[in-house]
Amino acid sequence: MAKITLDNLAHSYLPNPKSEDDFALKELNHDWDDGAAYALLGASGCGKSTLLNIISGLLHPSQGRILFDGQDVTHAPTAERNIAQVFQFPVVYDTMTVHDNLAFPLRNRGRDEAYVAARVQEIAKMIGMEDMLKKKARGLTADAKQKISLGRGMVREDVNAILFDEPLTVIDPHMKWELRTQLKQLHRQFGHTMIYVTHDQTEALTFADKVVVMYDGRVVQMGTPEELFETPAHTFVGYFIGSPGMNLLDARVEGNRAHLQGATVELGAAYGPVSGRTQIGIRPEYTVLTSGEGLPVRIRRVEDVGRHRLVRAEAAGQALNIVVPEGLPISADMSHVSFVADRINVYADDWRVQGQPAGKAA
Amino acid sequence: MEKTVNNKAWFLVLPVLVIVAFSAVIPLMTVVNYSVNDTFGNNEFFWAGLEWFEEMVTSSRLHDALGRQILFTAIILSIQVPLGIFIALNMPKTGFWASVCLVLMALPLLIPFNVVGTIWQIFGRVDIGLLGHTLAALGIDYNYTNDPLDAWLTVIVMDVWHWTSLVALLAYAGLQSIPQAYYQAAEIDQASRWAVFRYIELPKMKGVLLIAILLRFMDSFMIYTEPFVVTGGGPGNSTTFLSIDLVKMAIGQFDLGPAAAFSIMYFLVILLVSWVFYTVMTNLDREEAK
Fold first, then answer.
1. Among residues A207, A240, A273, which one ends one of the domains?
2. Cβ neighbours of A78 in B, within 8 Å
């Protein structure tokens, strides 16, 4: 196991990248701590698979270095890095039995059969497939195949990190939970460094200690699920995490007030002069429908999603989502909306601006 | 749901039955008719029973031709299948050169059989052929018209040139269907080049390869036009394969009875081998899914 350091790393699929736009992965400095579970979250095409393939050595970066425990492996082939990778579509060797599949990486490394047999038993127990060892891998279900590819990665004792590239895409929904729980358990038990690529926020938030959100080839935020929810560093994070995502309203910010088309919103902090396109971000969970206090609002539609109701509305000429908890009535005179002041984030050109806590500065 | 019974539907099948009858069943029955009768022309037939079959089964001429045929097919398969796979493995997977390779590979398949024969017949001639003349100039004693070995070599090389593309293209199609993740996983598992071939590429190509082998078996076992044009079955009888012998017997000597018995047995052998092949193929498939 190892700490993985990305140093000035960037990658372009073009031979001669000219501008920053040509890079699929923009310059990046990052440490992956030994033994932690990370999720790489982002929409399709944001560079997460590129980053994963660079770490595993399937792809060589256009610039920068990768270090494993301080040792430069940028130009080391995949085999030397001792990385395990589980792919989106289950990769098993069809003609082999489950046992031979699990033994394959060890046999390729020339380990003796007694060791291989013992190790395969151990791994089969870990992934719960002891009674399937004699079966041909070909006829198995997708989730069993995915377990085999995971097992094939863990069978090597010197594995530095396990990378997952959207491993649950082809798994039935009811098996997803089970596999994810099992994965978490394995992580707790054996402490491998795990990097899990996904575009599913639930998967990312439930699996990882730390979530790395990528957008347009860039890491926009890294943090705990709570940090991502409460203080998104970038409007993309606000919009991508949460269901529905954060409300973003164009506004003019002065001190601890935001002005929206004549209306004024109190902020939880004071801000200096903010330049660029200024927006305030507020989670639908922290907006409250009122019958007089706050911004005037026009309700377009109310959706009952079971746990709560979702109000699609319009305030200050911009779309706004409001979450109304179960049991709270929505009445006809509710024509205004107020925001929980200290849950409001301010963004300038999509990046979060840190404000001074209220009361300290003007 | 109630099923509608309407026997008029049979009329819809009728056209195809008529076409198959005229194109296959009736001609085949004519052959059956010839095989159990003796005739001296004028559509007069004398019942001969299984006489012709007995004669053919014990005929050493047929045994020799069958031996040559089996040898030829075995050589053809053992060259074309590995060579086709090898070519497919080394063809570029994408880009401009992939298209160029595909067109080049498909080219021999598009040339009519007798033209292929003529090309090689001239190509191999010692007096004017590029190949024959060059070999002669190098001091190699090569002449397919009077040396049986040279004749065999010419016919085999010609067939390899003509048909390896088919195996290669089928294998290539099989290879193209392998997702990139398999190669990446193999790289991570430190699989050797041989292991990648043995455990990833070969299993994925198996289906198309069996089809390729079946097609190449049938075609090479029935080969007629190309060796007929190049060597005419000679020198002597050295390249007289089954179908060449059959035509000699039927059209050359007008032994229609024996020739008919011969062709029926020939047909049954090919049918039998293809059926065995198919059964083994599907069984292997089922076995593996277990």
1. A240
2. 184, 187-188
Domains in chain B with CATH codes: 60-289 (1.10.3720.10)
Sign of CA dihedral A236, A238, A241, A246: negative
A274 alpha carbon, distance to own chain's centre: 29
B185 contacts A79? CB cut-off 8 A? no
Q: Average pLDDT of A36-44?
A: 86
Identify whether A300 is part of a domain: yes
CB-CB under 8 Å, A95 with B288: yes
Residue contact A88–B188, C-beta within 8 A: no
Domain that holds residue A289: 247-357
Q: Is A60 on the interface with B (CB under 8 A)?
A: no
A96 vs B199: CB contact, 8 Å cut-off? yes
Phi, psi (rounded to 5 degrees) for A267: -105, 160
Q: Which of A21-35, A247-261, A320-334, B67-81 has the highest mean pLDDT?
A: B67-81
Task: Work out the average pLDDT over A141-147.
Answer: 86
DSSP-based three-state secondary structure for B179: coil
Judge if ipTM > 0.90. no
Identify the pLDDT of residue A359: 52
**What are the chain B neighbours of A77 within 8 Å (beta carbons)?**
187
Nearest Cα residue to A293 out of A247, A243, A338, A226? A338
Residue A362: per-residue pLDDT: 40
**B199/A78 CB distance under 8 A:** no
User: How many domains is chain A partitioned into structurally?
Assistant: 2
Q: Is B156 left (phi over 0), alpha (psi -120 to 50) or beta?
A: alpha
Residue B1 pLDDT grade (very low, low, confident, very high; cuts 50, 70, 90): low
**Interval A219-261: pLDDT, tens:** 888 888 888 888 888 998 888 888 888 998 888 888 888 888 7
* Partner-chain residue, chosen from A94, A105, A153, that has the shortest CB–CB distance to B190: A105
